[in-house]
Amino acid sequence: MGDYHVRFCERFGVKLPLSTRPTWNCKYHIVFAPKYRRQIIDGKYKKSIGQIIRELCERKGDIIHEANACPDHIHMLVSIPPKLSVSQFMGYLKGKSSLMIFDRHANLKYRYGNRKFWCRGFYVDTVGRNKKQIQEYIRNQLKEDYMADQLTLFEEFDPFTGEKNQK
After folding, report:
1. Which residues have CB under 8 Å from 92's CB, separation 6+?
2. Contact by Cβ (8 Å): 163, 157
3. Catalytic status, residue 137
4. pTM for the complete prediction?
């Protein structure tokens, strides 16, 4: 390793490995949702889906740092080895978990055609030095969703007349 790399690592507090094996630190914030954005991830499904996702991540050697399942989407802070791209990881995770969810909960086959539980896309963001903020955001996601719902339950002014509503 060149002198420049050693100085760069020392400057940013990165400890260089003593072994010849590669070390990595690739963290991603990933959000994905069930097909049709159905609010299905509650109760027995929430626990089962969480177990399935943990099991699949362990098989691939991925580390889940933080995860939270909201009724209509899932947030994960996960470390993925560099040998896997994020799209490969998500294809594996969503494909295998769909099959496992339909095996465990056969009644869901009628709500979702073609044995596809998850919608096509996903959101991904790399995690740098703001790992703690992202973990806190994922932990408090359900509270934030609940507060946003509470704000929309009562409109102070009628949108059509402009008059103040009574509580």
Report:
1. 56, 60
2. yes
3. yes
4. 0.69
